[in-house]
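User: Round two. Same drill as before: sequence, then structure, for each protein.

Assistant: Same drill it is. First protein:
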Amino acid sequence: MFPHHREREQPIFSTRAHVFQIDPATKRNWIPASKHAVSVSFFFDSNRNVYRIISVGGTKAIINCIVTPSMTFTKTSQKFGQWADSRANTVYGLGFATEQQLHQFSEKFKEVKDAARLAREKSQDKELANTALSIAAPQDLSDGLQSPPVMCVNGPEDKLFRSQSADITLSSEKERIKKMLSEGSICEMNLEAELFTLQDSNSKLVAALHEANANVAQWKKQLVAYQEETERLREQVADLEAHGSHGPSDLLKDELTQSLEELEALLKAKDEEIHILQSKKSDYHELERDRDQAIHRLREVEMRNSELERRIQNTEQNLSNSLEDRDRLDTELQRAIEILDIKIFDLNDLRQSLVKLMDK
């Protein structure tokens, strides 16, 4: 059943995005359905004329949505879009890496929705035709069983009554077929979710089997090496038994004793290192405290330094202003001296003129 179902379903578009689902409790917050970006694909079932959006994350299908004409994909930002699935009673959200990917998915969603609308209209027309044929056949048979006089007496009114009853039966049959199709779609969605889970598990098992087959040769080589090492050790034991003054057990005992002594010495050295580290732990805390204090003092010094720099800048500015004022005063004083010299020269000329005048 499953292989045949997969053969009739063909992918038509695929992209990668982060998948989210609306929080069922708050209906406001988004819950991530995948840790990383996963493949989100549109599939088309040619036998049923059904379009679906499918996304598999890990071992389960996180999106298994049949596209209906009533669905609408809404762009909520430059890289995020969402749509509601009334069958699953949830809202899906997709986060894309680029704005172009969001635009491509939105355009494909519109195309698939229009195609699903056309497919549903064709399917409804076909169902209506089939239902009308199935209803008309028993009516024809019943008409044949009726007596000719009744047909002759009723005439056109009897045909009108049969047409109205056929329309009523047709509408009820249509509702029953829709209900059966909706129930079958829900069961099929559950089966398809199980199918994706089984396929993902099967792919993982196949990958593990390939890895195991690839490691068989390496395991065989290791087994041969272990066998050779075992034979070599057996030969050494035989040589020791034939030529050694001590038995193999005594030699092994001596080796174990020596190894034990070495381990005890190593353990003692490690204990000494632990004691040294524990003794240095208090020193380390003191160093950390001193470091914190030094950092605090350094910050205070930096603050004072910045304050002194600000004061130096103000002093330099004041000094520059004072130098400018002094230069300006020197210039004005020089000008006043020059004017005073001119006045003194004029007064001297006037005095000499008065002296000459008095001499006359």
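Second protein:
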Amino acid sequence: MAATAKLARQIGALATKSGGGWYGPHMAAASRAIAERLPLVDLVLEIRDARIPLSSEYEQLRNYPSSSRRIIVMNKMDLANRSQIKEWKRYFEQQKCISYGVNSHNKENIKELLNFLLARVRELKRTNYFNYTAVIMLIGIPNVGKSALANSLHQIGRISAAEKGKLKHAIVSPNPGETKDISSFKIGSHPNVYVLDTPGVLPPKILNTEVYSKLALTGSIRDCLVGERGIAQYLLALLNSSDEYKKWAKLSMNVNDRTFLDLEAEGLSSCELDKKQKRQYPTDHTQDFIVHDVRRTLFETISFFDGNVQVGEDLSRLIETQFTSLREAFQVPVELGEEAQNKVAAKLLNLFRTGRLGHYTLDSLPWHT
């Protein structure tokens, strides 16, 4: 992993040059506003990205005095390695922290989380809780899904309470830093329960270059601060150094063999099959057939590579080959020249960030023996 770590350091060096460009005046103001309200709320939900449960920590909560009123919510569970969620919950339990895994776009997940939160509120106010108003604050770094979670809790909570009136909506965006103000959303009645959606806040300085690289890869830091190509190179370095690509071995069947099998199974002529594919799959990189081509390309470039991915020069050579091969998989015109690599990088990052490239947990469990 030495070569991968070197790439992470290069990204970290770019971060240093940006002079903490992610931490603007609005983030400083948001940090102060959150700190002022923190002692007044009943529960704190620290929202983290399930792909980076440690790297997405909200540092200002490290010394939060009441662990019983703080819950770590690992959001974007649908994008993470699902087999590790239970292990992360056990880890946080060892740290005396309550944790919960959720997909903010899954209604059943949200219903379960809402019931869990309402039960916690009732525990806080054991007597006369029907006349009690509770406030839950959602806190986290940018782009971990706080606003999406607030919207989902608000919608499901109103339906459960059979409340009428205009539904509120927090701004949701794939880009970090869209939430500028603290907003309140009702999620329960009897007792009345509100959640506060807050702006994402990062520390003014991120000293750990590996953490910075993971934040950039998952979209918590704006791509323009590092460049999409550099982030995509880091992603490829991670994929090349792991065994995840082996899951795509079955996609490496000869194209002619696949076409023959398709024709034989459906009794179609090659002309009819071509028409069917064009009708079924428009030229959009989010379509399944292009995702399969990308996975197949990555499997073949890694499998047939004759170098050592632990050596920096070899890893760079492999990544350069992959960019060329991925340009064909993404159907990016060669005439674009240098801009073609930027488009390949943007498309590859989109596949990773939307989970179409697979489910990954980038942080390692820090088990203590």
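Residues 255-264, 277-286 have pLDDT under 50 and may be disordered.

User: Perfect.
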